[in-house]
Amino acid sequence: MSAQPMHFVSPAQFRDRVSEALADDGLRDNFRSAMNFLRDKRASQFPDPVETEALRDLGEAVRKHALAHLPALLEKLETNLQARGVEVHWAETPGEACAIIHRIATEAGATRVIKGKSMVSEEVELNHYLEARGVECLESDMGEYIVQLAGERPSHIVMPAIHKTKQDIARLFEQKIPDAGYTEDVDALIRTGREVLRERFMQADIGISGVNFAIAETGTLWLVENEGNGRLSTTVPDIHIAMMGIEKVVDTLEHAMPLASLLPRSATGQAATTYFNLITGPRRPGDQDGPRRMHLVLLDNGRTQAYADAQLRATLQCIRCGACMNHCPVYARVGGHAYGTTYPGPIGQILSPHLLGLDDSRDLPTASSLCGACAEVCPVRIPIPSLLMRLRTEANRAPGAAVAQPLAGQGASFSVGQKLVWRFWSGIYASPGRYRLLRWAATRFRWLAPRRQMGWTQHRTPLRPAARSLHDLMKARGQPR
Amino acid sequence: MSARERILARLRAAEPGAPVAPPDVAAYYAQRPRLTPGERLQQLCARLRASRADVMVAQPAEWARVAADALHLRGVRRLALNGEVRAEELAATLPPVIEAVRFDGEIESWKQEMFATIDAGFTPASAGIAATGALLLNHGGALPRTLSLVPPISLVCVDARDLYDDLHHASSSQRWADDMPTNRVLVSSPSRTADIQQTLAYGAHGPRELVVVVIADGDLA
Fold first, then answer.
1. Which of A324, A350, A459, A465 could form a disulfide with A374 if both were Cys (CB 3.0 to 4.6 A apart)?
2. Nearest-CB residue to B149 (from A142, A235, A304)
3. Inside any domain, residue B188
C-alpha cells in the first residue's frame, strides 16, 4: 500500500506531465470546480478589506519577527519542550528524519504507525521508508487515506485528494476495502473510512502528526484540523512523534493568534477549523490519557539555504494555507501532480528549489505568468512573483559565478548561446552607431529571415523585419525625432 | 558537530536582513470593537449552530435536566464523564436508562471499553469564543482528552460568564500562556471533512454530534 517514491523530479518530466495534464479534460474540470469552490469560500471569510489587510500586516509581522530570531527561538522551543519531557531531534536531510523515526519505533518495538496529516512526512517520504523496514504506516486524514489507498501522492497541501471525483473514490473503496460496496453517497463513503480507521487508532503503537505553529515560550505544538484524526493520532497511541520544518516556530502564544485566524480563513474559508489542538508535553502525572512519550523532529532539508539570503528568506514565512495554489491560473489548469514535487503551486515553485536544488527544479520558477494573484491572497504577504524572478535569475546565472549565497544548482538553466545572444543585443543597443548599422542591415536583408522559427511558426506565419524602420517612416513624414 | 549545531550555525551565519520590530498583537485586537455579554452569547450560539452543533441555553438550575433530556432523546445508554462539579450535577439528573461511566486510572485499562461501549462523553468548557463559535476544553488531569473525542456524541456545557469576544480576548484574560495544561482544545463543530469532492460530511473521525448547553442566568437567558 506504500506510496510511489518520487525522489527525483527531472525537468524534462515536468514538461511532459504538464502536457498530459492539460490534455486531461476530466482532471481540468475537477481542479477548476475545486478552485472555484475554495476561492468563493475564502472570499466569504474576508468581507472587510480594511480588517483583512490589517490582519495580513500583522500575520506578516509575526512571521518576519519569528524568522529574524529563528536560531534563538528554536533553542527556546527546545528548552521548553524538554522541560515538559518532549525529546527534540534535529535532522538536516530527509534520510536523517526518517532514520530518527525508525530508531524510535525500533527501540519501542513498534510496528504500527497511524498518521495525522503532515506535509513534512510527505516531503521526507516517511511512509515508503518505514514500510520498507517492516513498519506499517497508515494515513488517517480522509484525503490522505484515499491517496494512500490509490498508491498516489497528494495533489494539494490542504485537500490531498482534490483531483478525485466521488465516483473515483467509490470505485477505489469498492476495490480496496473488503465488504465496501459501490456507493457515491459521500456520507456513506466517509462512514466506511471512519470504521476502517477507528480500529487502527486503537491498535497503533505510534501516532505521527505535523505541526502548524510551535510556540517557543510555552513549548506548545498547535495543530489545526477538522476531522479529529489529528487529535486521535496525538492522544491514543503510546508514543506521539511530531514533525516540522525549522521555520514553523513563533515566539509567544499571543503571536500565534493572528495566524490561527488567517490560516483556516485562507485555506478552507472557515472562521475556525473544528479543532485547534494545543499540545504541551506528553501525559503528566495525574493525567488519565495522552501519549506517554513525545518527540519532535525538526527538519532543515534546504530551509537554511533559503534562510541564508535576506530576500529568499520570505519563502519561510509560509503557513501552508494553500491559498496561492487555489488562486493560481497555472495550478488550476495543470493540477498538483504535474509539478512532481511535495509542495505544488506557487509556494512549491519558490520552496522546492531549496529542497531539491535548481538542477532538479529549474523549470518550476518559469511555470508562472507572474500575474501576482498568489501574492495578493497570501495571508503573510510573501512576495511570490519577485521570488520567482529571483530564482529565474539564479537558474540562469553562470554556474561558476561568485555570489555571496550561492544556491544549490545555480546556473541549471544557463546556456552559452543565450548568453551570447543577450550580449550581442546589449552591445547593439548600447551604441547609436551600431544600432543604426543593424537597422540598415535588417531592413535590407530581411529576406534572409528563416522560414522556420521554432515554436513560433507551429501556429503562425514567420516573422520578418519590415522593409522600412519606424525611424525612416517618421523621418519621411517630417516628424521631429 | 551534530546536526543541531550545524543547522544553528548556518542560521546564525545568514545575512542579517532589515531589522524587524516585534509585532504588536495586543494593539491590533485592542482597536477592535468590544461585544456586550448579550451579543457574545448570541454570536456564540449562532456560529455554533451554523456549524451543525445543537445549542441550548438554560438557567443554572435547569441546565442538567436540559442536557439529560438531549442525551435521552438521542438514545444514549452509556455516558462517560469525570468527577468534576458539573459532571456530578449531570450524573445526579440522568434518567435510569442512562448509565454514568467514570473511568479510573490510565487509558490502557479502559481504552477498549471507551471505543466500544460509550455513546456520549461530557466535557465542561472553560471558555466560549464568540467570534468563531468555539469552546475551550482544558484537557489534562482528571479531564481525559478522549472524553470529547472518542464517543460519537460530545456534550459540552459552558457558563455564559466565561464567554469572550475572540481567541485573543480569551487567552489574554485567562492568561493561558502562564499555565498550559497538557492539551487545550478549541472545538467549533462536530468532527467533519470535505475531502471527498468538497462535499461536507459530519462524523469524520471524532464525534458525529456536538451538543452544547450554555448556562446563563437571569437577564442573559
1. A324
2. A235
3. yes
